[in-house]
Structure prediction request, 413 residues.
Amino acid sequence: MGIFFNMMIKRDIKEHLIYLSKKYPVITITGPRQSGKTTIAKEVFKSHEYVNLENIREREFAKNDPEKFLAQFAEGAIIDEIQHVPELTSYIQVMVDERKKDGMFILTGSRNFSLIKSVSQSLAGRTSITELLPLSYSEISKSKYEKMITKKKSKSQIKLKEEKLQLDKLLYSGLYPKIYQKNINPSIYYGDYIKTYIERDLRDLENIKDLSKFRSFIILCASRVGQLLNLSNISNDLGVSSTTLKGWLSILEASYIVFLLRPYNSNINKQLIKSPKLYFTDTGLICYLLGIDNEKHLSKHPLRGSIFENLIILEVLKSRLNAGKSNNLNFYGDKRYEIDLLYNVSSKFSAFEIKSAETVSSDFYKNLDYLSDLLPEKIIDRGIIYAGSESYEIKKNKILNLENLNGYLKKLT
Prediction:
C-alpha cells in the first residue's frame, strides 16, 4: 500500500462540487468521519478561508456571537463540522440572501441526522447536500495508474493486472483515505476509529448508557453483513429490546457506519421480502469487527463472499453519489429467489448477481432468468459482477469485474 504514501488521491466528486459552486450559495458535504470531506473542500475551494468547529475556541465564538463570527468571512468560507453549531445556519441564510453569491459557504459535517435537520430548516433552496463516502476502487485504480505514469513508465511497460490491489488486501484494508495516504496498518486504524468516532462520539451524542452492549450490537451486525435485517434475532442474542436496537441502528445508519439496501417493492407479488439487507459503508471496518487482522485470513473466511458483496454494493452507490445522483439501488427477494442488486434506470432495472468466485458458473444465471421471466418489461440489462480478471458477455449476461464496473456504471448514469 506504500505506493500511495504522501499522495493526493483524486476524488470523483470534484467535478460535481465545481458544478454546484456555480448554482448554489451554500454547498453542504456530509458523510462519515475521515472520508475526505475537509480535504476535498480545501482542494476545490482553495480561495476560501477555513474554520473548524471542532476547535473549542472557534465553536464558542460561533455560538456566543454568530453574526460577528460570520462577519470575518465576507467572501465566504469552508466551515468544518457545522453540526457543532447548528444554529449558525440561520445566520448563514441571512448572509447569503443579502450577498447573492454562489459558492459562498462550504459546510461539512459527519453526523447526518443533526446536520441535515438544521440545514433543511434554515437553508432550504439555498444549499445542495452531497454525500462523500470513503474512496472507491476506481479512484484508487486511477490514482495508482497516474502515479506509475509519473514515474515515466510507458503504458506498454505497465502490467495493470499485476499491479492492481489484491482483492483480499482491498477487502481487509477498506477504503478510508488515511490508510493509503499515511500507510497505516488497517487493524490499528479501525481500532482507533471505533474508539474515537463510534464509541466516543455516538455515545456522547445519543447518551448510550451500555457501551458494551452497543459494541456487541455493532459486531453482531458485522457478522450478518449481506443478510436480511432481523432485529428480533439480534435482540434474542444480545438481550436488548428490539425498540432499543432500532434506535441504535438508526444512529449507525445516520452516522454512515451501516447502509441498508431496500427491497424492490411491487404489488404484483404479495410474497416479496420486505426487510432490508444490512451492509457497512466500509469493508475494512467489517473485517476489524470480525476479528480478521490479516488479509490472509480472508481467503477461507465464511463471510468472504458477503464482504465482497458489500464492496460491490458500495462501489455502485459511490458511483451514484460522486456524480451527484441519488441512491437508486434495491435488491429483489421473494420466498424462493433473491437477486443481489437492482439498478434503477427510469423505473426499469439492470439486475446483477454478485459472486466472489474468480470463474463464472452457469448456476449464477438461474435467479436472473427467473426475474427476467417474472418482470420482462422491467429488466433492461442483467449480469454477474465477480472477482475474476476478465469482462465479457455471454447468454444475454454482462460479466463484469471491479476493473470494468465503473465504466459500465458511467454509461448508466
Remarks:
- The longest strand covers residues 338-345.
